[in-house]
Design a protein that fits this description.
Number of strands: 11
Radius of gyration: 21 Å
Strand order of the largest sheet: 5-4-3-6-9-11-10
CATH class of the largest domain: Alpha Beta
Largest sheet: 7 strands, mixed
CATH superfamily of the largest domain: Vaccinia Virus protein VP39
Helix content: 40-55%
Strand content: 15-25%
Order of helices and strands: HHHHHEEHEHEHEEEHEHEHEE
Length: 291
């Protein structure tokens, strides 16, 4: 099959499922992954024959896209904060809003000339921890997650991006009851950062099918009656393991900004700041620990 014919087949197969611009983006990403051709190269090589094995890959991708599977899972990778990351069905796909959280932590850290100790809680792909380590190579960065499979992906991403991050398996909801918490003995952190699960069941109707069907529920959802469960646990953890005057950063549910500010104040954090994302939604909060 000629590349031109393959492209026409791809476009016509998905025409009723996605806007044309999105189909074009999908085809470009798949061409780069399967054919090692960027968008411009595709246009210059329309009459190049494509092998049956490669056309089968495109057909498989069409089937998965029709089932609303995210393109990142199909190609097995994405970009975050200018860095490449492997993703699987066991990890949440990193979001642009989380890049803003990384930028905020990075901006605050610029004034610190000394080496810092940073902990990322609920690391998933490792995107926050790895991006911070890449931009602050002299800092010591740790990351925890409850999922063994997610930690495997995160370790792969650390190697891919040539950074040193210490990964630890930990259920943050039971951190003070678990033997693995001994791994934190004598450790104190200058910064703790987290993007924990925060989507309530009542908000699922606002979410797209590709998220609902394919992204890991463990990394996304909380009960309607206790939506701040992870934030409370992390704030309590920070009382033990965050240094005095250390800073805690969260990505948050945009509808619970005022509740998050109050939570940090109730946990004896000062200089609490609620920050909006580029879309004008309450998306991040930080506070400084006081003894």
């Amino acid at each position: 099959m000629l590349l031109k014919t393959l492209r026409e087949h791809f476009y016509s197969s998905l025409k009723g499922d996605y806007p044309e611009t999105e189909i074009q983006s999908f085809f470009n990403l798949l061409s780069e992954c399967y054919l090692k051709m960027k968008g411009v190269e595709v246009s210059l090589n329309l009459y190049v024959p494509i092998s049956g094995k490669k056309t089968e890959k495109f057909d498989n991708a069409i089937t998965r896209l029709k089932n609303q599977e995210p393109i990142q899972y199909i190609i097995g990778s994405t970009e975050f904060y200018g860095l490449p990351f492997k993703v699987t069905e066991n990890t949440l796909i990193p979001r642009p809003e989380t890049e803003e959280l990384v930028q905020w932590v990075t901006d605050i850290s610029k004034s610190k000339t000394e080496s810092l100790s940073i902990l990322d809680i609920g690391t998933g792909t490792g995107c926050i921890a790895i991006s911070l380590s890449k931009n602050r190579p002299n800092d010591k960065v740790f990351a925890v997650d409850i999922s063994k499979k997610a930690l495997t992906v995160a370790r792969t991403n650390a190697k891919l991006n040539k950074v040193e991050v210490e990964f630890i398996e930990l259920d943050i909801l039971n951190w003070n009851h678990k033997v693995s918490s001994l791994e934190f003995k004598n450790k104190e952190f200058d910064i703790i950062v987290s993007n924990p699960p925060y989507v309530r069941a009542l908000e699922k109707s606002r979410m797209s099918d590709n998220v609902l069907r394919h992204e890991p529920p463990l990394a996304l959802y909380v009960d309607d009656d206790n939506p701040l469960i992870y934030y409370k646990a992390i704030a309590e953890f920070a009382q033990t393991y965050l240094k005095n005057k250390g800073q805690l950063f969260f990505e948050i549910n945009q509808y619970l900004g005022s509740e998050m500010v109050q939570l940090l104040k109730d946990c004896n954090f000062e200089d609490v700041v609620l920050k909006k994302d580029i879309f004008g939604n309450d998306r991040m909060v930080s506070g400084i620990k006081i003894s």
